[in-house]
Amino acid sequence: MTTQTSNPAQIDAALDVPPDPREPMTAVQQERLRELSERAGEETVTDLTVQEAAQRIELLEAVVY
């Protein structure tokens, strides 16, 4: 049995970086928010960041389901 050790030079640091907090929400998030907002009878918010959209989706899923 061999053990593999990680070589720090081979680790991609970009994979462990959180998204830019100012990055606008993705098209997938926008569509999901639209669907959930309609089900909840709320207005769809379209100017959210990725993080804000993720939080809003989580909140609406808790309300709708």
From TrEMBL:
Family matches, as InterPro entries: DUF3072 (IPR021425)
Region annotation Disordered: where it falls in the sequence: 1-25
Top-level taxon: Bacteria
One Pfam family, short name: DUF3072
UniProt protein name: DUF3072 domain-containing protein
